[in-house]
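Chapter summary example.
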Amino acid sequence: MKTARCGPVVDPPRVRVGDLEITLLDGGGLWLDGGAMFGVIPKPMWSKLVEVDEANRIPLATTCCLVEAAGKRVLIETGVGDKSKYSEKEQGFFRFDSHWLLDSLQAAGVERESIDIVIPTHLHFDHAGGGTMPDGRGGMQVTFPNARYVVQRGEWGDATGGNAVMTSTYLRENLEPLDQAGVVSLVNGEAQIVPGVSVKPLAGHTRNQQGVIIRSGDQRAVQPGDMLPTAAHVGLRFNMAYDLFPLENVQNKKAILEAASQGGWTLILGQDPEQAVWRVTADDRGRFALVAGG
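The structure predicted for these 294 residues follows.
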């Protein structure tokens, strides 16, 4: 069953982790340059693994996870946001889907005011764009007004202080409304957000990206953000040109994949266009592969 880019549906895909249930919500798709998405890997290699359009772009999902844990509704990632936030030129370049996260929440019967906690893995526009929305008066408002937005302190500092190479992906309209509303909750390093949900720094794509770990009993699921955006990136050197610290990304990817293969963890890959839920296997030479399904 397809678990990514399902669109707004009444009964979205779900995966269980022990006593916890994770609902997979379509935050809206986009297309990005294939060469940039695979960095130093030559096109003859990566183009065998993914769909490519006439402009050399590949399709990506922005799958968001809704978890009810310890009496709280926790939302992981917010996707690209409302298409109207982008210029006509940007809409043509990125080929955004017509829907966004709020459409998927509404289809599933979840009110935006009921979300207690929002955890973006990092603050690039395709992960944090759904955290704010047009207010109908030419400005932006917080999409989830009763939630606290949990961000690594270093990621927030880089995003708001211009301390990054790709400053154009940290959009003011995604950040300033959160700051003005006082909903940002900064953490340093590993932290339990609620019982069963914690965050862990996974530097590489950005200096302070965080992965999200969902745990119940001896079962565990990990959303690793853009450390491992799609199944086609399972190779340790299959990094993106967008990754600011490629070596750190390789090291963190190897550590997570080893732990996942040994522990039987579920991986939730937010940008794979077909499948969000994966298991990790490793052969006797230490090469990793992904198997669809939780």
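To summarize the output: The mean pLDDT is 96.
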